[in-house]
Design a protein that fits this description.
about 200 residues, mainly beta, four-stranded antiparallel sheet, 1 helix, about 65% strand, elongated
Length: about 200
């Protein structure tokens, strides 16, 4: 795709590495930039002072700030198993006979029939469907803190999948009914984002 495009900042940061592969460099290493600022222009100036348009390409790493916070109350909604419904299926040769209503989401366990080491063309399938009821559970402060830590870890794992964290500051707060985890992070990340150029042609 040769559609003319610029490289702009996807988020605020301070440029650490700037390597333009195509286009005109518009920033310098050490410059602070805001989201949307032009990093590499898709406009190139020729030796005869004319300009040409290109698809800018480059690698722009910046030092950025990110924050993540989670809060967990001691009361949670949970589905508790309250019973089971069982049904059966008898298979004989090419025939299958259900005994009772067979739910689609039931757990199935098939058992064959062997007599004197000979497997008969008969099998029994036990179908079990567990029924649940939603209840409100009250967690201990320790369990609520563990659940908050798990949620915080999952968010961090998703947020920093393609980033390098240089510095982090984690805070933890707990009350009688809830607890919270927060983090402030200094990261290194590629903030370059392509933006198509809108070029209007004039006809004389």
């Amino acid at each position: 795709d040769s559609t003319p495009a610029d490289i702009i900042a996807a988020r605020d940061g301070q440029i650490v590495i700037l390597r333009p592969f195509n286009g005109t460099q518009e920033q310098k290493i050490g410059n602070p930039v805001l989201k949307g600022d032009l990093l590499i222009s898709g406009i190139e100036e020729n030796r005869d002072l004319t300009v040409s348009f290109c698809r800018a390409k480059g690698y722009v790493v910046a030092r950025t700030n990110r924050s993540i916070g989670v809060s967990q109350g001691r009361e949670i909604k949970a589905e508790i198993p309250v019973g089971e419904k069982k049904s059966y299926i008898i298979d004989f040769l090419f025939f299958s006979v259900p005994i009772g209503k067979i739910p689609e989401d039931a757990y199935r366990e098939r058992t064959g029939v062997r007599i004197n080491g000979v497997t008969l063309p008969v099998s029994f399938t036990r179908c079990v469907r567990t029924e649940y009821s939603e209840k409100t559970l009250v967690l201990s402060q320790e369990r609520a803190a563990l659940l908050a830590a798990l949620n915080f870890y999952e968010k961090c794992n998703e947020e920093f999948r393609n980033l390098r964290v240089e510095k982090s500051e984690i805070s933890f707060a707990q009350t009688e009914n809830s607890c919270s985890l927060g983090g402030k992070f200094v990261c290194l990340e590629n903030i370059g984002e392509e933006r198509k150029m809108q070029i209007e042609e004039s006809v004389r």
